[in-house]
Amino acid sequence: MTDITSTSAIPSAAALSWLQLDSFVPTGEVDEIITRTAAKVGHRRNIQLVLAHNPPVLIAQDALSRALNQPETSGLSPRERELIAVVVSVENRCAPCIFAHTATLRQLSGDPLWVGLLEVNYRHAPLTGRERALADYAWKITRAPQDIDSTDLATLRQAGLSEPAILEAAAIAAYFNYSNRLNSALGIRPNAEAYGEAR
């Protein structure tokens, strides 16, 4: 397991991505974010280590991520939120996010085979009607946002989603499209630790 102590230096960005930035020891809120996340997932996430070179962006991304992950006020279950993350990340072919969110979904579902099917093609995985509506919506937000219209929201309502849940689903899918593109644009190396979890 990677050393996750708060005093650990961040390796040079070149070891984690295509960037060529020097290594340094994070401090303040940046250190707190990296340490808190590592305590939760068991390793320091490479994307956070790279974004630590631009603290305002790391802090803003962390705040948005946490705002979209509030189970006590959510209209979506943790499994549904991770399903959206996986569908978006697979469509964008974002290895760091695929590794991270399939690991979480394997832990939540206890079914690595089902998660593996989602990675290949979510349309071939057994999903509830509500899950399929969410997956189709997330895919469309990712692949064809210009084609979305009011009928897409009507489909979600018919599947039992409330208006706040639809808002949340859209925000989660949009967030992961941002995160995927950032990872891909910088060549962020996926965390091997996540790949091996819950298999």
From TrEMBL:
Spell out where the chain crosses the membrane: none
Q: Where is the Carboxymuconolactone decarboxylase-like domain?
A: 63-109
Q: Secretion signal: which residues?
A: none
Question: Pfam families, from UniProt?
Answer: CMD
The terms under GO molecular function for this entry are: peroxiredoxin activity
Determine if Oxidoreductase is one of this entry's keywords: yes
- Which keywords has UniProt assigned to this entry? Oxidoreductase, Peroxidase
Query: Record's Gene3D superfamilies?
Result: AhpD-like
- InterPro entries found in the cross-reference section: AhpD-like, AhpD_core, CMD-like, Uncharacterised_peroxidase-rel
**What is the protein's given name?**
Peroxidase-related enzyme
